[in-house]
What does this fold into?
Amino acid sequence: MPSLPPRPSLPSLHSLRPASRGQASGPKVPVPTARAIVDCAVYVDGHRLPGRFTHSAAIAEVRGRGEGFVWIGLHAPDEGQMTGVAEHYGLHELMVEDAVQAHQRPKLERYDDIAVLVLRTVSYVEHESVTTANEIVETGEIMVFLGRDFVLTVRHGEHSGLSGVRRDLEENPERLALGPSAVLHAVADHVVDQYLAVTSSIERDVDVMEEEVFSPAHHVPIENIYMLKREVVELRRSVSPLSTPLSQLVQSADTPVPKAVRRYLRDVLDHHTTVADRVAEFDEVLSSLVDAALARVTMQQNMDMRKISAWVAIAAVPTMVAGIYGMNFDNIPELHWTYGYYLVLGVVTLFCGGLFRTFRRNHWL
It folds into this structure.
């Protein structure tokens, strides 16, 4: 018998399986550190050196000269980009982690000779009416890494730009000559000034809400007050914790901030205290508005119940008379009288009219 031809081998199940997404796209290409750097400059005696510097060339220039400092501004760096900067500036790995993940509470930390100040930024979201807005306060974050000959500012959020701060400092060489701590003060002062602007705008919203709650012609849903209170709580979480780091910078001599800069930071702390007091006041006012709105709703419900009770009392009169004459008894008075029907209608109308006038006089109807 002739032999059969060999059976063709079927492809294995693994060979038929589609390639994974990672295999199809290939390895992830690291993004250059320069993509995250908004500006990098070298300052000597308060003046910016001409030319463009990379983050590595800038610190080499300063340490080669033995004077001046580097200011690098970064926006939302990833881990690879931040690690590239950390290698040249001696940042701890925990600093890199905090700078990448963000969402930190305002704080001041020390890592050997490097201080880290975390600030929460806020921005007022424009809206047509406080009763129709979905968001009023937008938050972000700025981290300031302060070293002996450098300062790094890492920001998260689109509203927290520092180009104006850099421009103002470059126009004031005497302030920049104080060193990297002058940049820290300028950033903190800028953030607290934003707090003042936001609280002024929210104060107008709180005043409008207060006027509408106590206006008889307006009905403000309690949900709108809760929304505004939620935004004030978010503002308080960004503002209030900053008092401790600012106090440490002002009062402690262990921080790498010279006495001349601590005087300016004391003014920032005073402004921050003003903002914190205003935010606490907003919280108290909104709590009072919630109580007032609830009292107004309760009063309206009581008025509605009085109206319902009054109409039920009026309707009870004909209901009672109809119930009596609907019983199956032959000896009911006036049952067989010719004018009994008209007499009953008249009595019912008289009683209902009297009850209506009584309730109307007592403002139940």
Remarks:
- The longest helix spans residues 259-325.
